[in-house]
Design goal:
Elements: H1 2-29, H2 34-56, H3 63-94, H4 97-104, H5 107-117, H6 124-140, E1 142-143, E2 146-147, H7 151-173, H8 179-201, H9 206-211, H10 213-235, H11 240-247, H12 250-262, H13 268-284, H14 288-298
Antiparallel strand pairs: 1-2
Length: about 300
């Protein structure tokens, strides 16, 4: 019982850190460009994972193991670079941490839908979840009496597809390799690509980076290093479906963070849209087979 409570606390802590990271991203966007922000924070995240790896994954690596980690890590890191860039630009354009969190959270609905399109079996809950998410998106993007997609909304939704793609890439490789070392490689690739584009497309000023210091530190150390460690420890003793549902509360924490720290206010329809999207996210994580199994055990 104590183990389950500890696991649940760690999972919710992970979701909370990730959710509040949207606040850090919005504040950071006021001082530095998207590539600079992501470049510095992912490099910090890479560094923060080193002591975690030394603590949990001390095994020595031969050439074969390095190759098995390197190739998938580069692929995942490249997809992560695209997804995180679109997310940061979306946050910057919409100017809303809460809205960005919910639109990004659509990736949890998109993953099973993409698998369905690829010929994989999906549950009826996923289809219902998709309907709730689409209706919620309608209310979230209502302006006055019109349904409008702003550029920022489009960028975030496209980014959600890449986050879904990142989940699928990770799912394909992570079971056969060291998860923390795999993450180290993908974060390093994402950080290097972001900094490369920053040097080409943005004016990098140390004073601006210093002004965005707290958001960058939070996004790098807390969102990457601490949250990922909590995720690993929490999922050890948690049911995968339950863990996914808890992680989906990330979007709720992004809205809470935006309201408390940034005084963000949505319309009534906007909040209704958030609720419907959240219901859709939770529904998409449910499995009829697992529900039946749990009901039999509880009889």
């Amino acid at each position: 019982m104590k183990t389950k409570i500890k696991s649940t606390i760690l999972l919710f802590l992970t979701a909370m850190i990730w959710g509040f990271a949207f606040v850090a991203q919005k504040v950071g966007a006021e001082f530095v460009g998207a590539f600079t922000f992501n470049g510095v924070r992912f490099m910090l995240g890479t560094i923060s994972l080193i002591p975690v790896i030394l603590l949990f994954e001390r095994e020595k690596l031969d050439k074969e193991k390095i190759k098995r980690i390197l190739v998938p890590g580069v692929i995942a890191g490249t997809v992560l670079f695209i997804a995180s860039t679109l997310q940061q630009y979306g946050v910057e354009i919409t100017g809303s941490a809460g809205k960005a969190g919910f639109l990004t959270g659509l990736y949890t609905v998109l993953v099973p839908l993409i698998r369905f399109v690829m010929g994989k079996k999906t549950s009826i809950f996923t289809l219902f979840g998709a309907v709730f998410a689409v209706v919620g998106l309608f209310f979230l993007c209502m302006t006055g009496n019109e349904f409008t997609f702003g550029i920022g909304d489009v960028v975030l939704i496209i980014g959600a597809f890449f986050w879904a793609g990142h989940i699928l890439v990770v799912d394909k490789y992570v079971n056969d390799i060291s998860p923390l070392k795999f993450s180290l490689v993908q974060f390093l690739v994402c950080g290097v690509l972001s900094l490369a584009f920053a040097f080409i497309l943005e004016d990098i000023e140390l004073s601006a980076i210093k002004s965005a210091g707290i958001p960058i530190l939070y996004g790098g150390i807390m969102s990457v290093g601490v949250a990922y460690t909590c995720q690993i420890l929490g999922q050890r003793d948690a049911d995968p479906t339950f863990a996914s549902i808890v992680f989906s509360t990330e979007s709720v924490f992004s809205a809470i963070g935006g309201a408390i720290l940034l005084n963000e206010i949505m319309s009534g329809r906007g909040y209704l849209g958030c609720v419907l999207i959240f219901i859709g996210i939770v529904l998409s994580q449910l499995s009829p087979a697992e529900i039946k199994s749990k009901l039999k055990k509880n009889r």
